[in-house]
Amino acid sequence: MLVIYLILKYFIITEIFSYLLHIKRLTELFERKEINVETTLYDGHGHPIAYIADDDEHSIYLWSCPAVAYIVDENLFGWNGRHLGWFVDGVLYNLKGYRVGSVRNKCSHAVYEGHAKYAKYIKHAKHARYAASARPTLKLSYSNEDLSGLLKQGMV
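Structure (tokenized):
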């Protein structure tokens, strides 16, 4: 009985060690940007609408469109240069300060699964950025404006 116990203990420890090495390798790949992590954006009802690409520009894509917006600091700009709102702590706000979308863990509703991501469209050249609007007080309630409509305002 003791032999069986020792053998099982050896296999369990070996499996745990192997798992920890695997996690360490994945962490290293994420840090070196060899694995892309794209963040899905959800509307106020938990529907996946867009995603933030893991690139230097923090480009935002709708599921079937070229890049429509990008994030600079906390400002959200359309690809056409228009200031569309803010991205603060995982929440997208419109120019009036109302929420229009968020990442999964900031969504106030249960979220639906995201769509399959297709190959990205070639990005258009960005237009010159307009000056950012003054930031209003950010509100907890959602806007009547939908996330898709806000992001489409940034299309070229």
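The beta strands are 39-42, 48-52, 59-62, 67-72, 75-78, 83-88, 91-93, 99-102. The chain has two domains: 1-35, 39-152.
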